[in-house]
Amino acid sequence: MSEATSEQAKATSEQARHDYDKAASGYAGYSELPSGQLEAELVRIALGDCTGCTVLDLGGGMGRHARTALQLGATAVDLVDISAGMMHAGQQQYGVEFDATARLRFWQADVAQPLDHLPLRKEGYDIVMANWVFSFAGSTQALHAMLANVRRHLKPGGRFVGVRDADPWSPVLQTGKYGGLCRDISPIPGGVRYVCVLQSTPPVEFVGTCLEVVYSGSTAVYEQFGLSEVATVPYTSAPVVQRDPAFWSEFLQRPCLAVVTARGSIRL
């Protein structure tokens, strides 16, 4: 990674840390928005039966999806996030439910950097989640660094689950019908930079950077890092969509988010 690219990656990470620290007190409201409900249901479907599994949650924030993994039977979740504010808010919201048993541990770190300094499981994890972290990869090098952490910590044959951008220009991100807005979209090498506004109470705003190789839905970059059977969880499998397909019709025409699943295959 060149010095200039390294500095750009650090700036992107620092922007994310700043934005999410600022938003931490109100971010829980995202779960009440239609897009937040859909995301939660798709992630739950993607996780499936977690009985006896260990989970690494990269960019796990408040622990929303980590909590789902525990509810689905995971024995332990290690959560890594760049925002101390988000993790503190999650620990406050969920109280001692997990702290008392040490089933959920929080670690502050940048998932676009090596994580070897953290006391993560040396044997790897049965499931690695990386939800929305690729929305803060403003360069190929940063994206590859994130995927290298997935590969490094996922057991061969283990499961990967990730939430990603699907279409930054989707009309639903202009109307805000499903709770999210996207504005000030501008090109960066290989992708876009944008401002996302979640219409929770209070609203949450952050700057994102995402590469076309991610939001296009290509499986190549995942496969490059030893992931196979890459697939997108069908939106129509979510109960919230099944209950009101008419409400979700605009979203289904041009979805703005996707939940990806894959299997760990080879070590490169």
Automatic annotation (TrEMBL):
<dbReference type="GO" id="GO:0032259">
    <property type="term" value="P:methylation"/>
</dbReference>
<dbReference type="GO" id="GO:0008168">
    <property type="term" value="F:methyltransferase activity"/>
</dbReference>
<protein>
    <submittedName>
        <fullName>Methyltransferase-like protein</fullName>
    </submittedName>
</protein>
<comment type="similarity">
    <text>Belongs to the methyltransferase superfamily. LaeA methyltransferase family.</text>
</comment>
<dbReference type="InterPro" id="IPR041698">
    <property type="entry name" value="Methyltransf_25"/>
</dbReference>
<feature type="domain" description="Methyltransferase">
    <location>
        <begin position="55"/>
        <end position="158"/>
    </location>
</feature>
<dbReference type="InterPro" id="IPR029063">
    <property type="entry name" value="SAM-dependent_MTases_sf"/>
</dbReference>
<keyword id="KW-0808">Transferase</keyword>
<keyword id="KW-0489">Methyltransferase</keyword>
<dbReference type="Pfam" id="PF13649">
    <property type="entry name" value="Methyltransf_25"/>
</dbReference>
